[in-house]
Amino acid sequence: LSMRRQRRMCIRGRYRRDDGGESWEQILFGSETAGIIDLVMNPEDPSVLYAAGWNRIRTNLESIASGEDANIFKSIDGGDSWEVLSSGLPSGLMSRIGLYLWEGNPEVLFALYVNPSFQLEGIYKSNNAGDSFETIPTFNIPPNALGGFGWYFGKIRVSPTDQDEISVLGVDLYSTTNGGNSWLMSAPPWFEYIVHADKHDMVYLGPNDVLLATDGGLYRTTDGGTTWADVDRIPNTQFHRIATSPHDENLIY
User: Scanning 9, 91, 167, 252, which has its CA 20 to 30 A from the CA of 157?
Assistant: First the structure.
């Protein structure tokens, strides 16, 4: 089959199962070129879900990382039905969207939008479960904070004890403690190789105790980002290639 034919046959979207994984049903479909890149659930009411759509195709013939299906969807019935959220959010062609539901109040939802140039489009916050959004100031964040490949990141994280403490994860890490009125680089610049480039996840263990996942491993700060330590000896690994000998089928690399 041609790559385009395979793409058209691909059934993308959000799936649900309620039988331990024996069977799955599709509960949200964007388009043939769009999947779902992020999903958050209200911990106090699991029937309330938010999902982010993303146009993404990557084959040997084409690469798509933005489109008209970049939307935030909300369900209040566990995924049986969905509505597109729009009030206060950007429209038109967009790239990846990152979602974060604040632990302190499940009515508070954050969204980070990446534009078709794969830079930060904006950060948006809802205080009413997605009914409307307001813009978080980002004028102190450098225009190239996502390095021109925001499709690779799209992550936003917030302190569980302070909704004004927000972090944008990109090539470098930028954070605010005052709701976006000012932003600072909260980890050393990537080229110093103290903290590896390309930040993908962040977890708070305490008010000043944070784990940061990067392309180069795991880092931890216990003083709110003043110093960082490389967390070594993690019991995991990643395989990039597998090869077999053409002369001995039992020989595998």
Answer: 91
110-129 pLDDT, tens digit per residue, is: 999 999 999 999 999 999 99
Strand partners, 213: 201, 218
Q: Distance (Å, rounded) from C-alpha 155 to C-alpha 60?
A: 27
User: If residue 4 lies in a helix (H) or strand (E), which one and from where to where?
Assistant: helix 3-9
Contact, 87 vs 71, CB < 8 A?
no
Residue 77 CA to residue 175 CA, distance in Å, equals: 34
Q: Would you state the structure tokens that stand for residue 183, as one six-digit string?
A: 């932003």
* CA 225 remoteness from chain centre: 21
CA distance 101 to 45: 13
- pLDDT 10s digits, 169-223: 999 999 999 999 999 999 999 999 999 999 999 999 998 999 999 999 999 999 9
Tokens of 81: 């039905």
The angle subtended at Cα 97 by Cα 93 and Cα 99, nearest 5°, is 150
Please determine, for residue 9, whether its predicted confidence score (pLDDT) is greater than 70.
Answer: no
Q: Is 147 exposed, middle or buried (0-12, 13-18, 19+ CB in 10 A)?
A: middle
Quote the Cα angle for 184-187-190, to 5°: 110
**The pairing of beta strand 173-176 with beta strand 120-126:** unpaired
What is the distance between the alpha carbons of residues 59 and 4, in angstroms, rounded to a whole number?
A: 9
> Is 0.90 surpassed by the pTM of this model?
no
Token look-up 């990067």 returns 214
Token pair in block for residue 211: 């784990």
